[in-house]
């Protein structure tokens, strides 16, 4: 795979939001300026995902041109990899708060969500992906999923497959997802469709890997227009890594139970259950879950009730085994080894 | 200097809170348990500085033994290097919130502050420091300052110097400081005393360096009982680094103005002034100011209105020049080069 070598495996920045291709975006300045006028705003907050943060100053410039002089435009410097990384501090302290590039996890008047769609042409790589999909004469049923940034072409993708003889199955997932066919790193409910194969169109391999873990009975074909490569999701290496972590954690005495304080990531009941069940478990609260922050805690293993992508994709970077709540149950012997599954989130907040 | 080699220069963990010597602490469990009873608390939050985080689980165990079963004890996993790193999320969501190891920056009923005093014997190293202080027959006047963790021995230190013929000058600084003779990394008002020499008793060299920068007319002798070494604060290397950063930033077009959202670090007027004065300045808000978080912003230089220790001690780790507000004024030509001074904080919040 022609992965960007600057980003190591397990790096969440490697999500297709990095600017490998020149793109043009519509920042929906009209909507923002209108909100400033309507609310007599003096403070405007802008939040961009990591890969697009460098666009922030240009967007701020454009907004400053269009609004009164007394309006202060603020850029969020908090890490942002998804819709649950909402900068609630900035949101609460600005009159108009704009979150770019992710679709709402929950509709709220407090946030203006501006999607930033990729303008990469997805069809050449979809053409190549046909080699990995079953011939429509043998099996015409195919599921189609993509990420927020390619959502604007979703209907075209469906038609494109339809024209080639496929019966395309799509659905909107659960409340956590805005669009039909959309997947998140923590939610693949949109792939709960009646087909043995699913085509994922999008950058990176972490989303389709989660998808394949969540739907182990389906063949997951990855058409990646960002890295221009077609692959089939292979969960074997991923499973080996997870089993290795679980095995290492089986000897753990002291457990750190991480409760993530980010909006949309708090699973209090799950954390509380573990604490109630294990007197050597200690609740640790934090927003960003990073190796640095955990290094000073004298624990033998961690279980993360927050973002499963941190646990699995960044897992090897932590100094002690880092498990999902389901993996914890296996490690402490409450569940058999073969119940290892992917950790997903289904609610909003 | 026998610095702990694990910590690089500029590492804020190198503050004497790292456990080089065995120490015993009084966690004031009685006060905590009493507050739990009084408030019928079901949630108790504990926050420790980085170097003491590994003590957290043991303290949590002890508290759990002493309170009803339905009380959940939570450990803050947020980075903590000072009193302004208060975990306000945890504070707001727990009935009893305890901050260990730092003295209050502002008195509030919401927080139980538990000092954790060092039990390192300071007098052997003070004995050695006499070589660097003027003979009391020549100049008996000496200022005495220390950090929160040695505060319990402050009166003894004064007597000790007094017995050796010195006239010891001490004062409580401003509102930001709790104790007479106490210094913070961002505040040296307690050294505003009528003496040409100041003895700093404490770990690390960053505090006394700030002290020497803030009081350039005074000889600052460092008696470091943690690393067991006596030195005289030398601002030359520090100044060279700062001037190098200022010079590099002189060519900057695009400036990132950092507004730190941590309690006690927000200097809104200073940020606003820079924005008003410079149309190529962009306001960036964040809690932790780290090299990683700034890397994705396409700026030529940064000015940090938050913690001056991040700016100066961690400065070289940022990919672009990082200046204090005063240094910014020099870099853009509003002030002459020789006005470079140390950035300090004087209010509470």
UniProtKB/TrEMBL annotation, chains A, B:
InterPro entries the UniProt entry points to: DPH1/DPH2 (IPR016435), DPH1/DPH2_1 (IPR042263), DPH1/DPH2_2 (IPR042264), DPH1/DPH2_3 (IPR042265), DPH1/DPH2_euk_archaea (IPR035435), Dph2_arc (IPR022428)
Gene Ontology biological-process entries: protein histidyl modification to diphthamide
Alphabetically ordered keywords of this record: 4Fe-4S, Iron, Iron-sulfur, Metal-binding, S-adenosyl-L-methionine, Transferase
UniProt keyword Lyase present: no
EC number per UniProt: 2.5.1.108
One Pfam assignment: Diphthamide_syn
Gene3D superfamilies named in the record: Diphthamide synthesis DPH1/DPH2 domain 1, Diphthamide synthesis DPH1/DPH2 domain 2, Diphthamide synthesis DPH1/DPH2 domain 3
Catalytic function, reaction form: L-histidyl-[translation elongation factor 2] + S-adenosyl-L-methionine = 2-[(3S)-amino-3-carboxypropyl]-L-histidyl-[translation elongation factor 2] + S-methyl-5'-thioadenosine + H(+)
Keyword Transferase: yes
Cofactor(s) this protein cannot do without: [4Fe-4S] cluster
Protein family per UniProt: Belongs to the DPH1/DPH2 family.
Function summary: Catalyzes the first step of diphthamide biosynthesis, i.e. the transfer of the 3-amino-3-carboxypropyl group from S-adenosyl-L-methionine (SAM) to the C2 position of the imidazole ring of the target histidine residue in translation elongation factor 2 (EF-2).
Protein name according to UniProt: 2-(3-amino-3-carboxypropyl)histidine synthase
Species this chain originates from: Halorussus aquaticus
Organism phylogeny: Archaea, Methanobacteriati, Methanobacteriota, Stenosarchaea group, Halobacteria
């Amino acid at each position: 795979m022609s992965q960007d070598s600057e980003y190591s495996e397990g790096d969440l920045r490697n999500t297709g939001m990095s600017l490998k291709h020149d793109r043009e975006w519509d920042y929906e300045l009209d909507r923002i300026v209108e909100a400033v006028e309507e609310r007599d705003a003096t403070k405007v907050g802008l939040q961009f995902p990591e890969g697009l943060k460098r666009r922030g100053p240009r967007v701020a410039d454009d907004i400053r041109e269009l609004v009164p002089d007394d309006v202060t435009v603020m850029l969020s410097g908090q890490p942002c990899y998804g819709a649950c990384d909402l900068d609630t501090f900035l949101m609460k302290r600005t009159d108009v708060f704009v979150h770019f590039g992710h679709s709402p996890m929950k509709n709220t008047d407090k946030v203006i969500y501006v999607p930033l769609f990729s303008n990469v042409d997805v069809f050449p790589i979809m053409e190549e992906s046909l080699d990995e999909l079953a011939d429509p004469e043998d099996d015409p049923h195919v599921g189609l999923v993509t990420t927020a940034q390619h959502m604007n072409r979703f209907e075209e993708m469906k038609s494109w497959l339809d024209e080639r003889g496929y019966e395309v199955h799509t659905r909107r997932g659960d409340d956590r997802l805005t669009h039909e066919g959309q997947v998140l790193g923590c939610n693949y409910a949109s792939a709960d469709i009646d087909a043995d194969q699913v085509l994922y169109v999008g950058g990176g391999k972490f989303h389709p890997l989660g998808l394949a873990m969540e739907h182990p009975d389906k063949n997951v074909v990855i058409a990646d227009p960002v890295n221009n490569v077609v692959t089939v999701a292979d969960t074997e290496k991923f499973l080996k890594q997870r089993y290795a972590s679980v095995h290492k954690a089986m000897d753990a005495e002291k457990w750190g139970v991480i409760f993530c304080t980010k909006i949309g990531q708090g699973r209090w009941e799950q954390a509380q259950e573990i604490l109630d069940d294990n007197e050597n478990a200690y609740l640790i609260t934090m927003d960003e879950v990073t190796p640095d922050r955990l290094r000073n805690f004298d624990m033998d293993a961690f279980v993360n009730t927050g973002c499963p992508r941190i646990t699995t994709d960044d897992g090897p970077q932590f100094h002690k085994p880092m498990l999902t709540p389901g993996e914890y149950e296996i490690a402490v012997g409450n569940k058999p080894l073969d119940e290892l599954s992917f950790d997903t989130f289904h609610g909003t907040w």
